[in-house]
Specification:
The complex is a heterodimer. By secondary structure, chain A is mostly helical. Chain A contains 15 helices and 4 strands. Chain B has a domain of 204 residues. Chain B has 11 helices and 2 strands. Classes of the chains: A mainly alpha, B mainly alpha.
Chain lengths: 313, 295
């Protein structure tokens, strides 16, 4: 039943270009697909393993730059760019993750934040490579077997296919034994150790997978924007991913996916000045953390438990 | 290449001043973390609010330095008090990620409200001391920097005395070192946490106020400083106050020396690279000790 529902929604989203001709709506849908995947990747690290990672923004930026540079500087194709984005991010995640995960969860937050700042600095100041604040404009449309994805509805196919494949893969990961181990690490790490499972490889793997997925999402988003500059690492993106995860409910797979689809449309409705948008996002984050720290999914879960308790009484 | 010794000494002096100001920020973070295990992401914005308070108070009191400084410290401390009473006092100690996200949201709100109200244009802040300096031998240092460093040193001395010899400070150390035992002897964690936050944010307001005449005041000035301060408390060992001060002065010196000889980018990268190396070698920071101690 649930599977059918998910399939129906996925197909309905896939049929969007037939339902509307508005490039504006399809553009929002592209962002929704990409942001939802990035939020789902953050959910693996934060929701499942319980590690608050600000490195996602850095991975997003590395992915964007890796894809753009592969095409513009090294003459590769868009698809090779995405591959490099994934490989590079996974490698970087292992290098950063190992020292960061050896510390406690307090230090982890700060190390991942510092990593993101480092990426921002490099994007801005390594001018020979990234062309600094000027950025790299004019990213070409991706092509596949002679088909050029040069219009918004065509690009939507890439975003949609990516969202379906990535979310499917992440769902399989989360519902597998690995996913259950990750939740166990979050809930009771000493118990996991006592069961003879070393948490470190699992944490590292989750961090690296999440980095790779975020990187590919960043790569696709850069080609959607057709330009990449240090603003691609604006904290606004991190905030968006965080809000999606928190509103949806950290640790709830479908909650976050649903929140991603809904929350991607909200910034479009709230089209005020950039400052005002950030203030509203800040307030949403604050209220969500105060009122329902486990998100909508957590709130529903509490209600269900409450009802069961009442029925048993 | 012949290196001018006077140039080195000048860089060293600048580095120490810079380091002491970093230390003011890092000490507040370490204090808050030690007492309630929260990393205050809004710390940089409280510093920025302190700097703006200084910038607005100075013309009002006829450019007199010290009254304006007092206003800035009080404004930041009140900001800290409000944040604690409204938001942080509800949190349990196990809710670390929640505290990060709440203070992060506050930081974003404060930053953009200030930017909205006063625009992002940098402000130059003039004081009664102007931009004059003293010459010690061949070394030149502006009055505002000298006073800033002096104020930081006095603040550390006062903080040491407070934490070491007063009931107020001993209660903070007690909570940090053994929460249960502190509760048993009748220390109220809420009041102590509130005191710690007010003390830390007052220090941070002081940092903002002394920085205002030294560098330009912008809404984002807190951000770049706070990220360095985060790295510093990690390097020094979370919740370790002397560790944070040592790390901060070390970083100030390092940045100043690097800035004197290499490209500016290395100055920014240095602190993060040091942090990663320290974490690889000593995951608990350089000066890990049992809970929060001052001496």
């Amino acid at each position: 039943m649930k599977t059918l529902g998910v399939l129906a929604v996925a197909l309905l989203c896939g049929a969007l270009p037939y339902l509307t001709t508005s490039n504006y709506v399809i553009g929002i849908a592209i962002s929704a697909c990409i942001f939802t995947v990035a939020a789902a990747a953050l959910n693996i690290v934060y929701g499942y393993v319980g590690l608050l990672s600000f490195a996602q923004l850095g991975f997003w930026g590395i992915g964007g730059y890796a894809a753009a540079l592969t095409v513009m500087t090294y003459g590769g194709s868009f698809w090779q760019g995405l591959l490099w984005a994934a490989i590079l991010n996974a490698a970087v995640a292992l290098v950063i993750g190992y020292p960061a995960l050896r510390t406690n969860r307090h230090a982890f937050v700060i190390v991942t934040l510092a990593f993101t700042l480092l990426v921002t600095l490099i994007a801005r100041d390594w001018v020979d490579m990234t062309r600094g604040p000027l950025g790299i404009p004019g990213l070409p449309a991706p092509t596949l077997f002679g088909l050029e994805f040069n219009t918004t509805p065509r690009f939507y196919w890439i975003a949609w296919t990516f969202a379906v494949v990535a979310l499917g893969a992440l769902y399989i990961l989360c519902s597998s034994r690995i996913g259950r181990t990750l939740v166990a690490i979050k809930q009771n790490e000493p118990l996991v150790r006592a069961q003879g499972i070393s948490p470190m490889p699992y944490k590292l793997a989750a961090f690296a997978i999440s980095a790779a997925v975020t990187g590919v999402a960043g790569g696709i988003y850069a080609f959607h924007l057709r330009v990449i500059d240090p603003l691609f690492l604006d904290f606004y993106y991190m905030q968006t991913f965080l809000i999606m995860v928190i509103i949806g409910g950290a640790g709830s797979f479908w909650g976050v996916v649903l929140a991603g689809m809904v929350m991607a449309a909200v910034p479009e409705i709230l089209r005020f000045s950039a400052d005002f948008r950030m203030i509203i996002y800040g307030i949403i984050l604050l209220v969500a953390m105060l009122a329902m720290p486990n998100g909508v999914a957590g709130w529903l879960h509490d209600r269900r438990v409450e009802r069961m308790r009442a029925a048993l009484r | 290449m012949a290196i001018d010794p006077i140039y080195i000494v000048q860089l060293t002096v600048n580095g120490i001043v810079l380091g002491l100001l970093y230390a003011l920020i890092a000490v507040g973070l370490a204090l808050i973390f030690g007492v309630i295990e929260i990393i205050n992401f809004a710390h940089g914005e409280l510093l920025m609010v302190g700097a703006y308070a200084m910038a607005f108070a100075l013309p009002a009191v006829g450019l007199l330095y010290w009254p304006a400084l007092a206003v800035a410290v009080i404004v930041s401390a009140i900001g800290g008090l409000v944040i604690y009473e409204l938001f942080l006092s509800r949190l349990r100690t196990s809710e670390f990620e929640r505290s990060v996200l709440i203070t992060l949201a506050l930081s974003i709100i404060i930053l953009h409200v200030v930017q909205y109200l006063f625009t992002a244009n940098p402000r130059l802040v003039d004081t009664q001391y102007g931009f004059d300096g003293v010459d010690i031998g061949a070394i030149r240092i502006t009055w505002t920097r000298l006073i800033g460093a002096g104020a930081a040193l006095v603040a550390f001395a006062l903080l040491y005395v407070t934490l070491k010899y007063t009931q107020f400070g001993r209660a903070m150390r007690a909570i940090a070192q053994n929460r249960e035992a502190a509760l048993m002897v009748g220390i109220q964690p809420r009041a102590v946490a509130r005191n710690a936050i007010v003390l830390a944010t007052a220090l941070c307001g002081l940092a903002g106020a002394v920085l205002a005449p030294i560098q330009l005041v912008t809404p984002s000035m807190g951000q770049s400083l706070i990220f360095k301060a985060f790295a510093l408390v990690i390097i020094g060992g979370l919740g370790n106050i002397p560790g944070a001060i040592v790390a901060a002065v070390g970083l100030g010196l390092m940045e100043s020396w690097i800035g004197g000889f290499f490209e500016i980018i290395w100055q920014e990268l240095a602190v993060f690279l040091v942090m990663i190396v320290v974490l690889l070698l000593k995951p608990d920071g350089l000066f890990r000790r049992e809970a929060m101690r001052v001496g």
